[in-house]
Every structure is written in structure tokens, then in C-alpha cells.
Design brief:
heterodimer; A: 356 residues; alpha/beta; three-stranded mixed β-sheet; 15 helices; 44% helix; elongated; B: 322 residues; mainly alpha; MetI-like fold; two-stranded antiparallel ribbon; globular
Chain lengths: 356, 322
């Protein structure tokens, strides 16, 4: 009788363990919309290779933060990094996954891509509504070769909250004290002037539609919509064009080692080749994992993406994280993400294991 | 008076079963009706509960403040309320006369062979999803407005005192006016389809009597058809207004989404529903999130107030006519 009971209990336990490991096979995440195309691409390639499926819902960074805090997903994704104190309060850690650049685009007759030069101050003053005409002396002085009309500048911005806006307004706050005090930085702000388009595609459509307009979009959207991007003066004083090299230059010069909680924005980075409005998108995970098996699968996936996902990212106009940053992130995983018994979830040998 | 004494009579065979079926049927229909009420109360309660942090932070100044600043966490609903009311007003101003014309033409004037195709076309318009109207508005309407209509309006209407201010400003093609016009196009099928149906309910006898004493078609419309269907016509307009107040995607595409109140109709604005659609996904922070839910509650209140006022107007009108 007793033996029968024990046997049944044992069978049950085995069954549950089986069910658990089957569940651990799939991982789930939610959050930012900006990296969704590349996460989806990685997930697809990873599933073919490992059989493990990622279910990623692109519900927005705000939603991603809410979902991970409610523990309904295995990881959250946000374009805006959380401040170190907020991370500690929630018991979370974050790491950058992939980067992109935000570029100003103009729609002005006769002005093609890389034709117009802008300084940070001029860009901020346009978005503050201080410079209102295209033939303003400040713009004319920078662009003696262009014939600029006396028409009004139609400013276009995002109407929805977005990581793109966060990176853009964070940049303007850094380069313009007026912007910092009057508007500030956030995923959405109170814009002094302009019309708002929904999504990168909305801003692209408005910019195409309105003559004499200026907008800001993710680099990929500027390319796809054949919008005329401007050159922008960076912190070192050179005028740079937005492209994957200048984004990578910004990332390479970034000092991740001295960024507590990896809270780092890549705007206005040093270096003469750095594109000044670059940003990373982040993953949020709990430090103390109730389900270490699932967490291990999540980390395996991200590790695989770091190692093998670079080309796929570049094809979609994202910029992969540089090697030194990946090393740093692996160290942080090993040190901080722990199971209920306090053992690290991530095993550095895994980094090699999936490097095929 | 002697009441029929039924106490001694046994109910006929099968009566009990029928009664039970009746009871069950009544229960089912009552349940169906109760679901509507419960849903309404539930939504209202959820909105009110979600709005608590916003009202705790801003009290009732939430309804009268124009500021909408996620950075400093200051929110007010005035600009979206203004945008919602103004775009809906434009929509009604343009949409109602057109719908009325369509309905009258179809019921009184059009030759028989034209009625069905036009009627079907209107019903098809009503079936187009709103996002299609939005894209069409952005890619077709907006450039036309920017290049032709708005400069013309500034030249011809901009000089009129007071009203002129509505038509001055940069011709962007994206703004309150375009949103109002798109809304008008969207509500016309609804209003005209209902108007046509109610005009058809006017008894032929009444029409024919009027014609027989020598009334013209316009006299029949104004003196027979309209008074007979007045309540339903206003109901049709209210339905259109309800759609205009709540319409989201089409407006989001063309209104320009700026939380500012401008005198000019050419300038970008925002409506309550467009603001929610734009900002809900990325609203981080309790007060911001709650302010968006409070906006939803505001739309609820605005709709109830507007429809209530319309009902009141209708009652006044009825009273005066009697």
C-alpha cells in the first residue's frame, strides 16, 4: 500500500518534471517595437537551429516594463534603459541587445541625402521653434552651396511614445540647455512646435507629404522611404553622415565599463567618426530567477544572437553590439543572474558551446 | 363587479409546461438585456477606478488644463476635448446636409432604377474600415488641402472678422479641418442610410394627400416627411455624431497630433481617442497611464453630455411644435 503510494508520487513527480522541462523549451518576451523585426528574425533562425521558440510581443517599451514587473514574461524589452536605482528596486538587470541610429530627414526641393549640414544647436532651435524659416542665417551660414527658400520649416515629430523619441530628445537635451530646461527627454514630450506622425512610418509619410519639412526617423526608415537625411556635426566638431560605420564608431567609443546598471545612452559620444544620435535597445531580466531552466534558455538565445546574429542585424540596418560589450554583458549575466539556490544560471562554457 | 373566479379551475393540460417555457424565455431575454447594462456599468467603473491616480494628482483641473507634458508629469484634457468637439462639429456641419440631400433624392426624386445602385454604394461606403479612410485622407486629401483648398480659404475667408481667424495659418493639409472633413465623409453613409429608411416609413397616403391638394415636392418634404420622421432623423444625426466623437484611426492619421489649442482650423490638434491610440502603448508611470484612462472617462462623459443635450433639444423642439 505504502509502496504503491510512493510509486504513484514518484510517477507524478517525474510527470511534472517532464511537463516543466517541456515548458522550459519555449521562451517569452514582450516590449519595444523598434527591435521587433530583428528579434523576430533571430527567433526564426534560432528555432530552426535549436527547436526552441521565442514568443515576442511587440507591445511597446512601457508595456514590456509592466509585463516583466508582473512576471508574465521571461524577459522585457525597452528602448529606454531603466535608471540603476529603478533596476535595483525591482530586482532587475538590463543589457543592450542591438543598436540603431536616429537621423534627421528633410523634404526640401533640390536637397538630396547628405546635402544639408546641421549643427546640434541649429537642430535644437528648429525643434524649439526658434528657427522658423529655411533661409534663416544660421542654416544659410552652414550651407552656402544650397539655395534655401524663405518658406516656413514644417517640423514633424512622433505622436506616439517611442524609444526613437527618447533617443532624439535625450540628444537634444545634451546639446541644448534651452531644450533641456523647456522640453526635456522622454519617450514622448510636449513638443513646442510641429505635427505628430504615428510611428516611424507616420513621420516618414508626413515628411514626404509636407514641403519644407524636417523630421527624425530610425535610419532604416530613411533608407526605405528614400528620405534626404542631413549631415550632423558631432561632439568632435566634424560633420558626419549616418551609416552603420558611424553608428558603430559611436558604440565603440562608448564607455560601458563605467556605466552602472549598463545605463548608457550612445548620444553625443566622443570620436570624430561617431554619429551623435545613436542608441541601444535593452533587455530586462530578473536577477533572482524562480525558473532557472527557462532563464538559461533565454540567455542561451541572447548569447546565440550576440555570436551569430550580427549579419542578420546588419541586413535589417541595425548595428550589432561590439565584441567588448558582449564580453562585459556575459560577465554580468554570470555574476548576477542566479537560481533559487544561488548558483549562477549562465555558464561561460555556454558562450563557446553555441558558437557554431 | 364580479371578478371571474378562477381558483377552482385546474389549468389545462400542458399549460404548466408552457408557463415554464415562458419563464425561461423571459429569463434568457432579461439576461441578454442585463449584459448590456452590466457591461456599461463595468466599463464605467473600470475607467473611474483607473482614473483615480490622475484625479488625485490634478483634481478636477484635469478637465480644464491645456498642458500635456509626460516629462514633468503634468496632464490636462482641454486640448483633446477641444479637438474632439471641433472635429465632430465640422463633420456634422458638412455631413448632415449632404446626408439629408442623399436621403431626399433617393426617396423622393430619384428615378426608380437609380435608387438601388446608389443605396448599395452608400452601404458599401459604411463598410470601409476607418484606417482606409485615414490613409486615403493622408495621401490624397491632405496634399489637395495643402496645395489648393487651404490657400483658397485663406484668400477668400481669412479676411472675414472673427470667423476669418479660423482660416488663417500655414496650409499644412494636416490638421483639424482635414480631420473634420474625413469624419464627415465617414458619417455620411450612416446618417443617409438611416434617413432614407425612415423617410420610406412615411405613409403613402399622407404624401399623396399633400400632392393632391397641390403641394410641390419641396413642400411635401418640409411639411409632411420631415415633421413625420423628425425624431428618427435626429436619432440618425446622433448616431453619426457618436461615431465622429469616438473615431480613432482615421483621425490619428490626419489631425497632426499636437496637444495645443489653435484658433486656426488648419493647425494640428488632437482628439481624445487619437491621444489614447497614440500614447497608450508607451505610457510609463502611474500618473501618465492613469491620465490616458481618465481621457477615456472624459470621452464617455463628453458623449453622454452631448447626446443628453441633443435629447433635451429634441424635447424642447417637440414641445414648441405642439
Amino acid at each position: 500500500m505504502l509502496r504503491g503510494f510512493t510509486l504513484a508520487a514518484f510517477l507524478c513527480a517525474a510527470l511534472f518534471a517532464g511537463a516543466n522541462s517541456a515548458q522550459a523549451g519555449n521562451i517569452s518576451g514582450a516590449g519595444a517595437t523598434f527591435p521587433y523585426p530583428i528579434y523576430a528574425k533571430w527567433a526564426d533562425a534560432y528555432k530552426t537551429k535549436s527547436g526552441i521558440a521565442l514568443n515576442y510581443q511587440s507591445i511597446g517599451s512601457g508595456g514590456g516594463i509592466k509585463q516583466i514587473k508582473a512576471k508574465t514574461v521571461d524577459f522585457g524589452a525597452s528602448d529606454m534603459p531603466l535608471k540603476p536605482e529603478d533596476l535595483d528596486k525591482a530586482g532587475l538587470l538590463q543589457f543592450p541587445m542591438v543598436m540603431g541610429g536616429v537621423v534627421p530627414v528633410v523634404n526640401l526641393k533640390g536637397v538630396k541625402a547628405d546635402d544639408m549640414k546641421l549643427t546640434p544647436g541649429v537642430l535644437a532651435d528648429i525643434y524649439l521653434g526658434k528657427i522658423t524659416k529655411w533661409n534663416d542665417p544660421a542654416i544659410a551660414k552652414l550651407n552656402p552651396g544650397l539655395s534655401l527658400p524663405g518658406s516656413a520649416i514644417n517640423v514633424v515629430h512622433r505622436s506616439d511614445g517611442s524609444g526613437t523619441t527618447f533617443i532624439f530628445t535625450h540628444y537634444l537635451s545634451q546639446v541644448s540647455p534651452d531644450w533641456k530646461s523647456q522640453v526635456g527627454e522622454n519617450t514622448s514630450v510636449e513638443w513646442p512646435v510641429g505635427v505628430g506622425g504615428k510611428g516611424n512610418e507616420g513621420v516618414a509619410a508626413y515628411t514626404k507629404q509636407l514641403n519644407g519639412s524636417i523630421g527624425y526617423v530610425e535610419y532604416a526608415y530613411a533608407l526605405q522611404n528614400k528620405l534626404a537625411n542631413t549631415l550632423l556635426q558631432n561632439g568632435a566638431g566634424t560633420f558626419v553622415a549616418p551609416n552603420s560605420e558611424s553608428f558603430q564608431a559611436a558604440a565603440a567609443n562608448a564607455d560601458w565599463n563605467h556605466a552602472p546598471g549598463l545605463y548608457l545612452l550612445l548620444t553625443n559620444q566622443p570620436g570624430k567618426d561617431s554619429w551623435p544620435i545613436t542608441g541601444a535597445t535593452f533587455i530586462l531580466m530578473y536577477k533572482n530567477q524562480d525558473k532557472p531552466d527557462t532563464a538559461r534558455e533565454v540567455l542561451k538565445f541572447f548569447n546565440w544572437a550576440y555570436v551569430n546574429g550580427g549579419d542578420m542585424a546588419a541586413k535589417l540596418d541595425y548595428v550589432p553590439m561590439p565584441k567588448n560589450v558582449v564580453e562585459l554583458v556575459r560577465g554580468i549575466w554570470e555574476k548576477n543572474i542566479k537560481g533559487p539556490d544561488g548558483t549562477p544560471v549562465f555558464d561561460p562554457s555556454m558562450a563557446m558551446g553555441s558558437n557554431k | 363587479m364580479t371578478a371571474l373566479d378562477t381558483t377552482g379551475l385546474a389549468p389545462p393540460r400542458g399549460f404548466r409546461a408552457q408557463e415554464a417555457a415562458d419563464q425561461a424565455f423571459r429569463g434568457v431575454t432579461f439576461f441578454a438585456a442585463a449584459i448590456v447594462l452590466l457591461t456599461l456599468v463595468g466599463i464605467l467603473a473600470a475607467l473611474a477606478w483607473g482614473s483615480v491616480p490622475a484625479f488625485r494628482a490634478f483634481h478636477f483641473t484635469f478637465f480644464i488644463r491645456q498642458v500635456w507634458n509626460p516629462v514633468t508629469v503634468q496632464f490636462g484634457a482641454l486640448a483633446p476635448i477641444y479637438g474632439t468637439l471641433v472635429t465632430s462639429a465640422i463633420a456634422l456641419l458638412l455631413g448632415v446636409p449632404v446626408s439629408f440631400g442623399i436621403a431626399i433624392f433617393l426617396t423622393e426624386l430619384a428615378p426608380e432604377w437609380m435608387r438601388r445602385p446608389i443605396g448599395t454604394a452608400i452601404e458599401l461606403l459604411a463598410a470601409i474600415p476607418s484606417i482606409i479612410y485615414g490613409m486615403w485622407g493622408l495621401f490624397v486629401f491632405a496634399p489637395y488641402f495643402a496645395n489648393h483648398l487651404e490657400p483658397w480659404m485663406t484668400a477668400h475667408l481669412g479676411g472675414i472678422p472673427f470667423v476669418g481667424a479660423l482660416f488663417r495659418g500655414p496650409p499644412l493639409g494636416i490638421g483639424m479641418l482635414t480631420a473634420g472633413v474625413i469624419l464627415a465623409v465617414m458619417i455620411v453613409p450612416f446618417i443617409s442610410a438611416i434617413m432614407r429608411d425612415v423617410f420610406l416609413t412615411v405613409p403613402a397616403v399622407m404624401r399623396e394627400s399633400a400632392f393632391s391638394i397641390g403641394a410641390t415636392t419641396s413642400e411635401v418634404v418640409w411639411n409632411i416627411v420631415l415633421p413625420y420622421t423628425r425624431t428618427s432623423v435626429i436619432g440618425a444625426v446622433m448616431l453619426g455624431l457618436g461615431r465622429a466623437l469616438g473615431e480613432t484611426m482615421a483621425v490619428t492619421f490626419v489631425i497632426g497630433n499636437a496637444h495645443k489649442i489653435h484658433a486656426s482650423l488648419f493647425m494640428p490638434g488632437a482628439t481624445i481617442s487619437s491621444t489614447i491610440a497614440n500614447e497608450f502603448t508607451e505610457a510609463v508611470g502611474d500618473v501618465y497611464y492613469s491620465s490616458l484612462i481618465a481621457l477615456g472617462l472624459t470621452l464617455f462623459i463628453v458623449t453622454v453630455v452631448v447626446l443628453g443635450l441633443a435629447k433635451l433639444m429634441l424635447r424642447r423642439l417637440d414641445y414648441r411644435l405642439r
